[in-house]
Write a structure and sequence with these properties.
With about 350 residues, this protein is of the alpha/beta class. α6 links the parallel β5 and β6. The C terminus is likely disordered.
């Protein structure tokens, strides 16, 4: 039974960057992985693409022939894909049991109320794939209460629309300290509970929000999110291996991933960590690493990298010296005895 991730999220949330980084990480731990591009506007992928919707239909052609704008063109392209699912099904059959990453378009209406992407996912599911939807959001949304509440609503609507195992992820968490101090610890935002504490900060952000009618609206939105009790967030720094490992463990739990034999063939530290379910980064670890003590940890990692490079250089020089000694010894060893004696005439 093949497994797959459905990478959704608004523009700029890091979907293609995530696909590239996760493809490299999965390959490094021995999990055979391929990427499928379902974004007709993505004409320069940074990852090796096994299937590309642009071989079926391109955004430029749709905009020219149908006289549509970029957003309408993407919607039209997904409707075309929904009507030509044989193309995608045949391509996926050729991938066998590969773990698949689906890089999806960034138009939010596609995963909030438009039906085509949802129908495509269900057709993929009928092929036997175990799917996990991964909703990426730039962690910049934490800097403004209004942005965060909008993110909560978008995440909740996406979960209800897709009706699949679902994880919400705050990306670029390694940049969060550069945006200024947050009024709450990171755990407050990832757990999405006690949201009424945000209301005073929302009023400070915009004086208009102090009007009684907006206060009632804000409280109603907060109650809606809390009553469903569905929204929570994982965090991700795509260039940090431990962060990637922690997220992959959460994805595997959500999708019920069963490790294959190929994944146990090697024994690097990251393979063992993912395979054996070793402890990743808790939200408090993320708070300490990327917010409270970021500069200290950055300096520590820089020193460790320099030491690793120095050790590698010394080992390489030692191997070169050993190789030269062996070459000299081989040259001075002389011609081996063939067992034939040559007797010269006096």
């Amino acid at each position: 039974m093949p497994f797959a991730q459905l990478i959704i999220g608004p523009p700029g949330s890091g979907k293609s960057t995530y696909c590239d980084g996760m493809h490299q990480f999965l390959s490094a731990i021995g999990r055979k992985c391929t990427v499928v591009n379902l974004d007709p506007a993505n004409d320069h992928t940074s990852y090796p693409c096994a299937l590309d919707i642009r071989s079926l239909v391109t955004l430029e052609e749709i905009m020219e022939h149908e006289e549509l704008g970029p957003n309408g063109g993407v919607l039209y392209a997904l409707e075309e894909l929904e009507g030509n699912m044989e193309w995608l099904e045949e391509g996926l059959e050729g991938l066998g049991e590969d773990y698949v990453l689906f890089d999806c378009p960034g138009q939010v209406e596609l995963f909030t109320h438009h039906s085509s992407l949802r129908n495509i996912f269900f057709r993929i599911q009928k092929l036997g794939y175990r799917l996990v939807a991964l909703h990426l959001t730039d962690s910049y949304c934490l800097t403004l209460p209004s942005l965060y509440i909008s993110t909560l609503l978008l995440s909740l609507r996406s979960m209800l629309q897709l009706d699949l195992p679902h994880l919400n992820v705050l990306t670029k968490i390694d940049k969060i300290s550069s945006y200024g101090p947050l009024p709450f610890d990171l755990e407050f935002y990832t757990e999405a509970q006690d949201l009424s504490d945000l209301v005073p900060h929302l009023m400070e952000e915009n004086p208009v929000m102090r009007h009684p009618k907006f206060e009632g609206l804000n409280n109603a939105v907060i109650e809606l999110v809390e009553d469903f009790g569905l929204v929570a967030f994982e965090t991700l720094a795509v260039e940090d291996k431990k962060s990637m490992m922690t997220l992959l463990q959460a994805i595997d739990r959500a999708g019920g991933y069963a490790f294959g034999g190929a994944e146990g063939a090697n024994d690097t530290v990251w393979q063992v960590a993912v395979r054996d379910g070793l402890r990743g980064m808790s939200v408090r670890d993320v708070q300490e690493r990327w917010i409270d003590r970021k500069e200290e940890f950055d300096e520590l990692e820089r020193r460790e990298l320099e030491e690793e490079v120095a050790r590698a250089r010394v080992e390489a020089e030692a191997m070169d010296e050993d190789g030269e000694d062996e070459d000299v010894e081989e040259m001075t060893r002389g011609v081996p005895d063939s067992g034939i004696k040559v007797v010269r005439k006096p």
